[in-house]
Amino acid sequence: MYALSEFVIDFSDVPLNPFGTRDEQKLEAALIVGTLYSPEVVELLKDPVERTTWIDSLAVAAAAYAKYKAGKPVSKIAEEVGRSEHTIRAHIQGKTKAGKLIISTYEKLKAGTLRVAVPFVSGAPQVEAKTSELERKVQELTREKESLLAKVSELEKEVENLRRQLEACREESGKLSRVVEAVKSRLQALEEIKQLLSELA
């Protein structure tokens, strides 16, 4: 049995005054999505002739407004968006239809009243099959991760063991060096004694 469900998009972490490119992109995306799913725009997009133009205008207006809220000057926004300064001003001042819609979405976002619910059908065979496949992949990845962690643990133990062996070798090497030095010292003393004996003979 199929059931109509909906997925509500969370806009709680969208920055109202972006700082940096990533924040700009998050605000821009929220403005586009929030506007595209508004009842007014849904009606406008039903016209196949105007659909492409509307989507392009909304995308430009959203990008311009997000950059404007980031504190960028109009000249910089125009350069980055690829539109004239006149067009950018018209959008961010709400003098265009697209600009008005984007600003309206921003105000809803600011007030915390922006809600976008995307409907989808749950219980459909293809959805259930995809879900099962994803769950299986997650399980496989989990097992693979656990296996890799076990191998890492084993390697860490081997490395620690080798480290101890290396320290032991260094210690033995130090002892050997001291023995060699002692032998050299005694050989030198022996040579000196032999020299004295030869002089006394």
Automatic annotation (TrEMBL):
- Segments forming a coiled coil: 124-200
Keywords from UniProt, A to Z, are: Coiled coil
**InterPro entries attached to this UniProt entry:** CHP03879_regulat_dom_put
Q: Which PANTHER family match?
A: BACTERIO-OPSIN ACTIVATOR, TRANSCRIPTION REGULATOR, ENCODED NEXT TO RECA SUPERFAMILY ATPASE-RELATED
- This protein is called what? Transcriptional regulator protein
Annotated organism of origin = Thermogladius calderae (strain DSM 22663 / VKM B-2946 / 1633)
